[in-house]
Amino acid sequence: MSITALFATAGATNSGLFPAAGLTQEMAKIGQFPPVLGRRLSGRAPVGLLVAAGAAIVLAVGFNLTEIASIGSAVALIVFTLVTSGHLRIRGETGAHVSLLVLAVSTTVLVLVTFALTTLVDEPATAVALVVILLLSISMDVGWKMARRHRAVSP
Known about the structure:
- This protein is mostly helical.
- The chain contains six helices and two strands; from the N terminus they run αββααααα.
- The longest helix has 30 residues, at 124-153.
- The radius of gyration is 18 Å and the shape is globular.
């Protein structure tokens, strides 16, 4: 079972790393990420891929497989919640039913809260890691947006 889990984790990591290169390049191009993430080292290795690989290595070294799966589940629930919440803003363009979107957001938030409380009791180190990742993500986003705004104002 451990070997199967190892291959599954390696496959999931691999399938997530390569889109990261194109995603970070595109996000850097439109100004959502710092320009350095859109560059390539020596014209070959995308910096965004190296950053994503570094983050994967830190997770693999710092946490066991169960903790990594818990972190991944929480991140997926957060992404689902944010994407569906964003869909509420453009529902007129997509023709989505408000009631289904609200039900989806409510259900996902309920599952996320239940997951967070369960994780806090059963795996406190994972819960702390989730909070640190969330706070780090928010602070990096706010910092980049402030720096970008400052550059746009400066002569």
